[in-house]
Design brief:
Shape: globular
CATH architecture of the largest domain: 3-Layer(aba) Sandwich
Oligomer: single chain
Largest sheet: 7 strands, mixed
Strand order of the largest sheet: 6-5-4-7-8-10-9
Length: 330
């Protein structure tokens, strides 16, 4: 992005949190769901939500100004993207990811970014000790991971693979999508104990309980099953300190059979350090998870993977401007 020259651009950045809070508030009272079947008036929406008309009017005006809603006379309607992604019964619903993970977990954690930059751990994953927090995090992450998982499934040829190790696999979104795309594939998810019950529910709903199993524990501390055909790290390297990331890559090498596939899906910025902006912001957020996280670039990751013993390294975009997929072979 070109260097900015206008104070209004600085203001847009500085006030960005106001727009996100308007989105979170509209999701919490299900504005978009209430408009799913057609336009409604202010009176309709105030009556359905129980909010005072004046306060609802202010929220709706903010949503219209942000492009989340459209207004025609006295009636409000969802913008096309809001209809597709923010209505709870939509097959592409993404709202819970914003409501739970971004609004209630990542957003508050970023209040401590100044401390993290000075080297203090915020202990983001300490919340996983609370079953309610673990459940909210897992459900939100599931919504956010399904889209990238489908892209990874399209990019990755796992024909002939029978065993997949999904390290820090969370809700099981990637294991579910990859098992559906590869009928002979069985997966093992390694993640925190409090994540497992929610993941089991989601795996059961997908009808894959006979093909996906679990190892409960910190991935750095538990034993991984051996003789795997593929190992997947999704959003893992950006969540641990650089030495731990290197250690995990070595553990993956040991767990894989000769010729086995390593898949690393994560946020990455360009090697020249100029962006993309969203990937850079996610990696800035990663400092609140671990202040010693690697500066995750294709060059650094490829070097670390090569050092662990892998070859045939390739990189492809998954979520443009945000995440990429590195693949390699043992």
């Amino acid at each position: 992005m070109a260097p900015i020259t206008d104070i209004r651009e600085i203001s847009r950045i500085g006030y960005g949190f106001m727009a996100s809070q308007a989105l979170f508030a509209a999701l919490d009272v299900d504005v978009f769901g209430r408009l799913a079947r057609g336009p409604r008036t202010l009176a309709d929406l105030a009556g359905q939500t129980g909010l005072a008309a004046g306060r609802m009017s202010t929220l709706l005006t903010a949503c219209v100004a942000l492009g989340l809603l459209a207004k025609d006379g006295e009636r409000y309607a969802n913008a096309p993207a809001s209809q597709a992604y923010l209505v709870r019964d939509s097959p592409t619903y993404f709202g819970d990811y914003f409501r739970f993970q971004v609004a209630r977990q990542i957003y508050p954690t970023l209040h401590h970014l100044d401390e993290a930059l000075r080297g203090r751990r915020v202990e983001f994953y300490a919340k996983m000790g609370d079953p309610a927090e673990a459940r909210a995090f897992s459900i939100a992450q599931h919504a956010g991971s399904l889209g990238p998982a489908h892209v990874v499934a399209r990019l990755t040829d796992l024909r002939g693979c029978r065993r997949l190790l999904d390290v820090a696999g969370g809700s099981g979104a990637f294991s579910i999508v990859l098992c559906r795309a590869n009928e002979n594939l069985h997966a093992t998810i390694v993640d925190f104990p409090n994540v497992e019950p929610v993941a089991r529910e989601l795996v059961h709903e997908a009808g894959l309980e006979n093909r996906i199993d679990f190892v409960a524990g910190d991935a750095l501390q538990v034993s991984w099953p051996a003789d795997q055909d593929a190992a997947l790290f999704s959003y893992l390297v950006s969540a641990v300190a650089e030495p731990q990331a290197v250690e995990l890559l070595g553990m993956a090498f040991k767990a894989l059979l000769p010729g086995g596939r390593l898949l690393v899906h994560d946020f990455m910025v360009d090697d020249d350090g100029t962006g993309p902006a969203m990937a850079a912001l996610w990696l800035l957020n990663a400092i609140t998870i671990d202040p010693d996280v690697a500066v995750l670039t294709p060059g650094w990751l490829a070097g670390a993977v090569r050092h662990a013993g892998f070859s045939d390294i390739a990189l492809e975009p998954v979520v443009p401007g945000i995440t990429r997929l590195l693949s390699a072979r043992r």
